[in-house]
Amino acid sequence: MKAAPTLFQSPPQLPDDQFYDPTSTDFKHVLPSLCSPIAQVFDFDVSPLERATLGKIENIRWLADHGHYDLAAKLEYCGTSFIHLKCSHGHHKYLRLFCKSDLCPICGKEGSREHKKRVTRAKDRLSWAPVLGYMIFTLPAEVSASKPSSDKLKLCTDAVIRIIKDHFNTPGGLIRRHDMGNDYGKLHIHFNALFPITNTNGIGAIAPDKLNRIRLDWTKFINECFALNCESSNIHYNFATTQKKMYHKIKYVLRPIVDALSFYTLSDDDKSYILSLKQRHNTRWFGKLSNSTYRKYLLSKNIDPDKYKNSDSYLSRLCPVCGDKFRYIEIIHKSELPPGQFRWLESDIAVDLTIFAKLKENAKQSGNEKAGEKNGQGTNGNEKAGEKNGQGRAKQQLESQKTFWPPQGASPRLSAERQQAASGKKNTPMAPPQGLNG
Fold first, then answer.
1. What is d(CA 218, CA 235) in angstroms, rounded to the nearest whole number?
2. How far apart are CA 355 and CA 358, in angstroms?
3. Residues 80-118: pLDDT tens digits?
4. pTM for this structure?
5. Half-sphere exposure (CA, 13 Å, Cβ side) for 182?
6. Residues with Cβ < 8 Å from 331, sequence gap 6 or more?
7. Cα(113)–Cα(433) distance, integer angstroms
8. Are 351 and 343 spatial neighbours (Cβ–Cβ below 8 Å)?
């Protein structure tokens, strides 16, 4: 039996980006070097901004080393240019341009401008629903590890759409594929589905046997498509009936599929596989809510298909001053913005002074209206309180008018006198007590 090395033995030489675990006596646990890029990115002393910067640098370096020069350039210059828009009355608007890549630390994070744009457009198609269904269809771990082709993934999307149509009364919906889960360093392919459920009387719950039939259909498809023999599969169902919960589910489903930090933790083979899938869209609308038919369908139901889009300061193409449409003028660098002639609405939206003053005035009027409504509600509340207090005082007066005579120990004769006085009748002479006559 080979003896374990002592502390005085020299371990074998390793590359500069690795070192041995000092708690191991057999030199089998190899850890990344503290000076390696991934250790710097995950260092707990690194601030979120520094971590995003390091991740961006390392992703750009990897993309350039593996021949993805165009994508590397997009990540490097993301957010440095603006699109110049102008209406027919001479009002100007400037919108920051982004690379739209999930691998970018700017665009590939929750709450980014690209994420907000996807959420706003999806709200126009989905938030009108009385019940919004939500399902997750997960591929087995061995299938995700085998890196299925884009054609296989398209078949999976078709199967999800077919299963939803077979088991739910829905006009259409959204399917979005996510290539990773919450764990770093490995693939976890699953399909998220959002779809309005109609004719349910506001009830989104389904029977357990129906959920089992859905699971059987998904398991059958996986076995046929990937030549497996799975007895069951992983699916999840939920629903939302309020605007707040619908918004949360839309925002969650439309988050980046692989953000910059998650991409950085993958192996080179997994990174190349993720980039190969970028040639296909990972979001698909189906049914009457597809890109070509959703406007006609929503208008037939008297629903504005651009309600949330027109209220979004980035997506709206209508001038808030004159109401005309903005027209494209040019693409400019951020250093070419006219100094002193614009104001920032957000970090990626700039407008001229006229639009800024108009928006400020509208915000002030909206605030006054809300304050007036609040005061009106307060006045109504005070009136109701006053009515309640008046009723209470009247009740007290009625109670005080009640006759509580005779008290304990009082004579009936005194009680009769009190009753006559209260009724306003003239007192009659009372007979003197016995034993007191002349």
1. 8
2. 5
3. 999 999 999 999 999 999 998 888 888 888 889 999 999
4. 0.72
5. 1
6. 81, 82, 83, 84, 97
7. 102
8. yes
